[in-house]
Amino acid sequence: MLLYAQTPARRNRQILADLTALLLIAAAVAFALAVHDAIMLLAEPGRKVESSGDSLAAALDDAGETASRVPLVGDLLKTPFRSAAEAGTGIADAGQSFQDIVGQVAFLAALALIVVPVSCVLLLWLPLRLRWIRRSAAVRSLLTAPGGADLLALRALTGPPGDLSAIPAPPGGFADAWRRGDPEAISALSAIALRRAGLRP
After folding, report:
1. What domain count does the chain have?
2. pTM recorded for the entire structure
3. DSSP, res 6
4. Between 88 and 47, whose confidence is greater?
5. Is 169 in the same domain as 127?
6. The pLDDT of residue 18
């Protein structure tokens, strides 16, 4: 199975198209990751809130533990500190929730920025490449099949006439030579069909 044409002009075009597609995909991924990182910067306030809430909760827990050691009223003093520590934990949870939301938005934005352009590139580029690979395989198998050269010659006759003018026409023309089964004419015509497909005769 050939991935690229054997004729230089078509092969160069195919390589250029492949490189362009890969560069576009890489650019889309790089841009999406940059957008993801930029959105994630918005999570910084959430990190600060979470850190502050955790610090506040830890400090109030420590204060509550210290207050609980006061004789007789220790348990009474500990209760307000514990409630305040729980409020600090709630603040930390809110900061974490904010970070989670920002992370989800960043992920979805990056995913969309990758999927949409990459899908467009693949839809425009991949079918053409696969079609050429299938056609070249069909032409090559046709060449080795019995009577395949005749069919390739017929394909050259029914294709664009510009290529036929590049070779000297036999007496009576190419169509007459093909009908007569002229080996030289059939060989020349099949070579034209192969070159049109990007293959060497």
Report:
1. 2
2. 0.71
3. S
4. 47
5. no
6. 93
